[in-house]
Design goal:
The chain has 591 residues and is α+β, with helices and mostly antiparallel strands. The strands form 8 sheets. The protein has a 6-stranded mixed sheet, with helices on both faces. Strands 12-11-10-8-13-14 form a 6-stranded mixed sheet. The longest helix is centred in the middle third of the chain and has 28 residues, at 304-331.
């Protein structure tokens, strides 16, 4: 079926059920950012493959609401599908719900599949529509009727990690979560988010591309802990290891019935990480405590074992990145490098390293104007061929058994312009400012965001995405609860958090620049004025200096860059061949 035919089939089903508008979120029953194929309903219906967006369909209009990261991509992918791009003014806001409130008459019904909408999203839809007399039904899965060849649930095997790899036993993690439940006066807690489940149980899998997680739910009660999972995914030994520490194992499909039969007084559910259908299954006799999963905050603070492992993973990743950029430089003149080929070759270099499992997200290899698309992914239609001119942006990462990486670098393929050098240097200055920040304990992410943006704002430039996100330990590359962005999110930067610092500048139709390192937040000093923190840079890959305009940098920025590149050479040279080390030595020369 073409996308127009799929849209027509959805509308026919809506008409048969008396539904005036249908909402399709980008999500799954675990409110994941990256989805198993079965839950990629937006891509199936509209052709849009971005990781953030919402479809709202009426009988005479179909729109995709997404944010500025995807505007160009959405315009291209929605052409001829019957769907129109609706540009979000505020990232993540339920603007589609207020649009529906304006266009639908009272008495209409708006429906969505409560398995694919978080509690927070469902409540936002209800708050927008019910006051104007529009009914909301959160228990309608229209895709089940019209998506005839819908993929099945993934069935990849899962496995348990040893405590030597994680630094903390599963039993200890469950105990810490239970202690947090006592603080919240909750007697039960359902964990739906897959990375939280993976962290608590020290379990990993391959159910979601690029994310080493397994589909499951975890129900923690005062006297019991139950994992709902496809039993076939775990071997007998791992099942016995879980049972030995008091974790019962039940079938994945039984999770909703287990929640519906709860006898707990109070259950803690994370409104942003629990689906509405699960929320609605809770018995009326059980009070619901809406709060962030305790494990989300616990998981964000890495222990010394995780930190030590991550440092080793960064060396392996840096070796792969060095070999990749050397290869690019040598092969560009031949005229046979494409964006897709770059992504494949970079994965090949990473896969040659010890303990590599997967890439941590789809590689963004953006040449010229494609670099101006923050979440670009080359397709057969867009696949550009590199030439010895212009800027190349590569944003990529790896999943290793000892850590998760995420790095962005920009290189010039030749004939750099003055404008490119100015923009590059401003972005680099912002990244250095963020990396050098010293701040009091209790500082929030939006304050780090502002410190990083200051040099860019000073040149009357800006970028539309956040400055940084948390990163998991051999887990999701995007991890909460902290984030470095302009939003007034009341989460403090804590010692042991790993976060990206990635400012950028984007000139639509020309080029994009983003420079990204991962940093570890650390306590610097305690004195009479309080406790102060700073960052340790973890990412180990040279930063190109041929695009730097030294006149735009203060001496402290020049010193930081020279010291960083010298450190990169020192850490990576032992793992490189002689000619590779010589090449890197030249790239890391002081400016």
């Amino acid at each position: 079926m073409a996308h127009k035919e799929r849209l027509a089939a959805i509308r026919a089903e809506m008409n048969a059920r008396g539904i005036a508008a249908y909402i399709i979120p980008s999500s799954d029953p675990h409110i994941s950012e990256y989805l198993p194929e079965r839950f990629k309903g937006i891509a199936w219906a509209s052709g849009f493959t971005g990781s953030a967006g919402t479809l709202a369909i009426t009988q005479d209009f179909a729109g995709l609401w997404t944010d500025s990261r995807y505007f160009v991509q959405a315009n291209e992918q929605l052409a001829g599908t019957g769907f129109e791009l609706m540009k979000l003014k505020v990232q993540g806001a339920a603007e589609y719900a207020f649009w529906l409130a304006d266009v639908l008459p009272a008495g209409s019904t708006v429906a969505f599949d409560g398995n694919l909408a978080s509690i927070a999203v469902a409540q936002g839809v209800q708050d927008a529509l019910e006051p104007v007399g529009v009914q909301v039904d959160g228990h309608v899965d229209l895709l089940a009727s019209v998506w005839k060849d819908r993929p099945t649930l993934p069935f990849a095997p899962a496995y348990l990690l040893d405590e030597k790899a994680t630094g903390e036993s599963t039993a200890a993690k469950i105990a810490r979560v239970k202690a947090k439940l006592i603080e919240k006066r909750a007697t039960a807690h359902l964990i739906s988010s897959l990375d939280d489940l993976a962290w608590i149980l020290n379990i990993r899998g391959r159910d979601v591309k690029c994310n080493p997680v397994v589909l499951g739910f975890l129900l923690i009660e005062a006297a019991s802990t139950t994992l709902f999972i496809d039993r076939a995914k775990l071997n007998d030994n791992d099942q016995e290891r879980l049972r030995a520490i008091g974790v019962a194992i039940r079938d994945y499909s039984e999770a909703f019935a287990a929640v519906a039969s709860l006898r707990a007084d109070r259950i803690l559910l994370d409104p942003k990480r629990t689906c509405f259908a699960m929320y609605d299954a809770v018995p009326s006799t059980t009070a619901i405590v809406e709060a962030i999963n305790p494990s989300t905050g616990l998981k964000a603070v890495k222990n010394e074992v995780e930190i030590a492992h991550t440092r080793r993973a960064m060396i392996k990743d840096g070796v792969a990145m060095t070999r990749f950029f050397k290869w690019v430089e040598e092969h560009v003149p031949q005229g046979n490098l494409t964006e897709i080929y770059l992504a494949e070759k970079l994965q090949e270099f990473r896969a040659a390293g010890k303990d590599f499992v997967d890439i941590s997200f789809d590689t963004i290899a953006g040449y010229l104007e494609h670099g101006a698309l923050p979440h670009y992914k080359a397709t057969e239609q867009s696949n550009a061929t590199l030439a010895p001119r212009g800027l190349l942006l590569v944003d990529s990462g790896g999943q290793y058994k000892d850590g998760t990486t995420d790095i962005t670098r920009v290189i010039s393929l030749g004939h750099a312009t003055n404008e490119e050098k100015i923009d590059y240097t401003i972005v680099l200055k912002g990244m250095i400012e963020g990396s050098m920040a010293v701040f009091p304990k209790g500082t929030r992410g939006y304050q780090i965001d502002a410190i990083t943006r200051r040099p860019i704002w000073g040149k009357l430039r800006n970028y539309g995405h956040g400055t940084g996100h948390g990163v998991g330990f051999f887990l999701n590359v995007h991890e909460g609860p902290h984030t470095f962005n302009p939003s007034n999110i009341d989460i403090a930067v804590e010692e042991g958090m790993i976060t990206s610092i990635e400012p950028g500048l984007y000139r639509e139709g020309a080029y994009g620049i983003r420079i990204e390192n991962l940093v570890l937040s650390k306590v610097l000093e305690s004195n009479q004025f309080g406790e102060f923190m700073d960052f340790e840079t973890l990412t180990i890959c040279y930063i190109a200096t041929d695009l730097v305009d030294k006149s735009l940098l203060d001496q402290q920025h020049i010193d930081w860059l020279n010291q960083y590149n010298a450190w990169v050479f020192e850490k990576l040279a032992p793992g490189l061949q002689e000619e590779e080390a010589a090449w890197l030595k030249e790239k890391t020369k002081a400016i």
